[in-house]
Design brief:
Length: 91
């Protein structure tokens, strides 16, 4: 059970390069090659499954957009922030 973060908590805890978009936090990772993005998404998927907390990921040309929200709570919780930090560590 994760509690919804307040606007102030989100602002304070949002990792660098991440932005808030309504009830989601979002970051677009950029890569030198398309398959580097595909590989990142695969690794992020493994981390997500390990955390059992799953992002929406859109794989584009040399970029991957990652969106996180806690569906069970209807907004942003520390689960989203923690997973964002773990994704950043994959870089
Ligand atoms: C039952 C519930 O769907 C599961 O506990 C997990 C699965 N992955 C999830 N992922 C995300 N982003 N939010 C959730 O609330 C969530 N819930």
């Amino acid at each position: 059970m994760a509690d919804l973060l307040s606007d102030e908590e989100i602002e304070a805890q949002l990792p660098d390069e991440w932005e808030r978009d309504g009830d989601e936090i979002v970051r677009t990772y950029e890569f030198d090659a398309y398959l580097d993005g595909v590989g990142f998404a695969a690794g992020a998927g493994g981390v997500a499954q390990d955390a059992f907390h799953h992002p929406e990921m859109t794989i584009g040309w040399r970029e991957v957009e990652v969106r996180l929200t806690t569906h069970d709570e209807g907004g942003i919780t520390d689960k989203d922030v923690e997973l964002a930090e773990r994704f950043d560590d994959l870089r």
